[in-house]
Design goal:
The protein is of the alpha+beta class and 395 residues long. The protein folds into three domains: 83 residues, Orthogonal Bundle (Butyryl-Coa Dehydrogenase, subunit A, domain 1); 110 residues, Butyryl-CoA Dehydrogenase, subunit A, domain 2 (Beta Barrel); 152 residues, Up-down Bundle (Butyryl-CoA Dehydrogenase, subunit A, domain 3). The chain contains twelve helices and ten strands. The mean pLDDT is 91.
Length: 395
């Protein structure tokens, strides 16, 4: 499906990564070390100077009008090479919502800061009792003149402790279908009445938070689109991750790391990679990645990458998350007792001492632990299977 120009673009991306990706950032990503806001900003500003921070955006808003395949190539190459994750909440999520549905003032106010990474965003969707089932959200916004008064709370808000703004779904009307009466608000996290409390995940790291809104006054001018139409904008936002949610580039990188680990680990005088049972597991994962990649290519080739998410997106999410867990599970199996020490301090950016146990074991274990959430976040796999059953099987 790739054209000569696509192949040339891939070579261009590889050359850019080789010359511009800072070695210290790459090494920390590959070792699974923690990154701070300034680390993400550093890489994202490099991408901005190259004009690639939002290559999939329209040119009129600062993008490159990349095709879906070009975006795929960029994501695959940067992820495999060990580039820091481009925090998606501004670039991939709220940015496209603003330039598609926002007014001119909202575009002028927010798009430049998203492109330069001077303003960080987080996503206020999930709530206690309304995680994968967003239609049941209870955070309310009551109209009071030129403001909404917001009360409620959001949970699992990734990186909100780093963020400046949050885009949130709030209930502005009752009655009718559960998806009706929801609006899409842009909220400055410095507004009085907002409290952010950390949630430490199973990897003992701080990615997640709970955000509370107590009589928070948000200008009506910060509402994107029409009142009570937020569900429409939320579905559009999800369509931007239709294919990338499978994270094939990261799967390939972790699989290559797993192969190296198995080749360097000896059992019974021979590399574990030659063990029949272990080799069978590796082959199953390798085939799974190839099939998943083919499914993604089929979606790209069908020209549906920008369509509303359907059962195909659910299949990609399920397979990608399960493969991620399978790979990291095998990493733990390879490490065995050598991977038991979990030195959380070794994940710090300034750590320069020797790890207890195998080199890189802490970062690998962190991938495994945090990866347990992969089948939950982004819509749990149970919910995804319900979507498939309803849409594809008519159940």
């Amino acid at each position: 499906m790739a054209t000569p120009s696509d192949d040339a673009f891939r070579r261009e991306v590889r050359a850019f990564i080789k010359s511009d990706l800072p070695a210290d950032l790459r090494d920390r990503v590959l070792l699974g070390k923690s990154l701070e806001r300034q680390d993400y900003v550093r890489w994202q500003k490099i991408l901005h100077r190259r004009g690639w921070i939002a290559g999939h955006w329209p040119k009129q808003y600062g993008g490159c009008d990349w095709t879906p395949l070009q975006r795929w190539i960029f994501e695959e190459e940067t992820t495999q090479a060990g580039a820091p994750w481009v925090i998606p909440f501004g670039i991939n999520y709220v940015g496209p919502v603003i330039y598609t549905f926002g007014n001119e003032e909202q575009k002028r106010q927010h798009l430049p800061g998203i492109l330069t990474s001077d303003v960080f965003w987080c996503q206020g969707y999930s709530e206690p009792g309304a995680g994968s089932d967003l239609a049941n959200l209870q955070t309310r916004a009551r109209r009071d003149g030129d403001h909404y008064v917001v009360n409620g709370g959001k949970i699992w808000t990734s990186y909100s402790h780093m963020a400046d703004w949050v885009f949130a779904l709030v209930r502005t009307a009752e009655g009718g279908k559960a998806q009706e009466g929801i609006s899409f608000l842009l909220i400055d996290l410095r507004t009085p009445g907002i409290t952010i409390r950390p949630i430490i995940s199973i990897d003992m790291c701080h990615h997640l938070n709970q955000v509370f809104f107590d009589d928070v006054r948000v200008p009506v001018a910060n509402r994107v689109g029409e009142e009570n139409r937020g569900w429409t904008y939320a579905k559009f936002l999800l369509s931007n991750e239709r294919v990338l949610i499978a994270e094939v580039g990261k799967l390939k990188r972790l699989y290559a790391q797993l192969r190296r680990m198995a080749a360097e680990t000896y059992e019974g005088g021979a590399p574990l990679l030659r063990d029949g049972d272990f080799s069978r597991k590796m082959i199953q994962i390798s085939l799974g990645i190839r099939v998943l990649e083919a499914m993604c290519m089929r979606q790209l080739g069908a020209g549906t990458a920008d369509a509303p998410p359907g059962p195909e997106a659910s299949v990609l999410k399920i397979r990608g998350s399960e493969l991620m867990q399978s790979i990291t599970h095998l990493m733990v199996e390879v490490q065995g007792r050598r991977g038991l020490p979990y030195q959380i301090e070794a994940l710090a950016p300034n750590w320069n001492e020797e790890e207890i146990g195998a080199a890189g074991a802490t970062g690998m274990m962190r991938e495994f632990l945090f990866g347990r959430a992969a089948t939950i976040y982004g819509g749990s796999n149970e919910i995804q299977r319900n979507i498939i059953a309803k849409a594809a099987l008519g159940l």
